[in-house]
Amino acid sequence: MEQIAGERVVVWGDSLAKGVVWNETRKRHAYSKLTAVDIAANKLGIEIINRSKFGCTAPLGMELMERDVNDGIVCDTAVIEFGGNDCNFDWAAVSERPEEQHLPATPPEEYLESLRAIVRWLVARNIRPVLMTLPPIDAERYFHFLVGDRLNPKHILKWLGDVQQIYRYQELYSLMIEKVAREFSIQLIDLRQRCLENRGFVKKMICADGLHLTEEGQQFIGEAVVDLVIKENI
C-alpha cells in the first residue's frame, strides 16, 4: 500500500498543477474540466487539496504555503511543483534589448535555495515533502506563441542562440528538483522521465502555447502520477 493512502495531501504548484489549458477557439487560457490532480485523487481514492496558482514561482509558493498553513490548512503530505515560471524570462525586455544580460524570474541559485527552504519548512512542521519534476515543453511552439505579433523574433533568437535553448533552460530547473530530492533523501514523482518515454507526448499532449497540457495530457499525467505513487510506494 502506498504511503499516501489515508493521508491528507495538499498540492502547491503553478498553472501546470492547477490544470490550466490553452483554449484554441477563444485564444486564451482556461481550466481543464478534469485536471491531472482530480484524476490522481479519484484513482487513488484520496482527497487532494489543490492550492496551485497560475504564475506562481518557488519563492511565491513559499509565501503561499505559509499563509495557507497559518490560515488552518492541515496536511500530512505536500506535493511541490514549481519551476515553469521560475525559469521564464521577460521576453519583451529581451526583444527590446537583446544585447543586454537578462535573468529569469527566479535565477537558478535562488530557485535551488527556495526549493531547499520549502523542504526544510515542511519537515520542520512534520509535513512529508514530495517533489515533482517538470514535464518537457515544446520550445518551437512556445517560441512562436511568446513572439506573437508583438515581439521581435530575430532579437530574441540573437539573445537565445537557438530556439531549443528554451527547452534546455527549463530542463535545468527540472534537474535541480531532482538534486534537491537527492540532497534531502525525499521522494520524487519523476513526471519528466515518464513524459519523455512517451514518443507522442510533446506533439499530442502539450497545448498550442508549447507549455500547458491538453485535456489528453491531463489524463496522461494523472494516470502517470498514480502509477508512480504505487510503484515507488509514495
TrEMBL record:
<dbReference type="InterPro" id="IPR045136">
    <property type="entry name" value="Iah1-like"/>
</dbReference>
<feature type="domain" description="SGNH hydrolase-type esterase">
    <location>
        <begin position="13"/>
        <end position="219"/>
    </location>
</feature>
<dbReference type="InterPro" id="IPR013830">
    <property type="entry name" value="SGNH_hydro"/>
</dbReference>
<dbReference type="InterPro" id="IPR036514">
    <property type="entry name" value="SGNH_hydro_sf"/>
</dbReference>
<dbReference type="Pfam" id="PF13472">
    <property type="entry name" value="Lipase_GDSL_2"/>
</dbReference>
<protein>
    <recommendedName>
        <fullName>SGNH hydrolase-type esterase domain-containing protein</fullName>
    </recommendedName>
</protein>
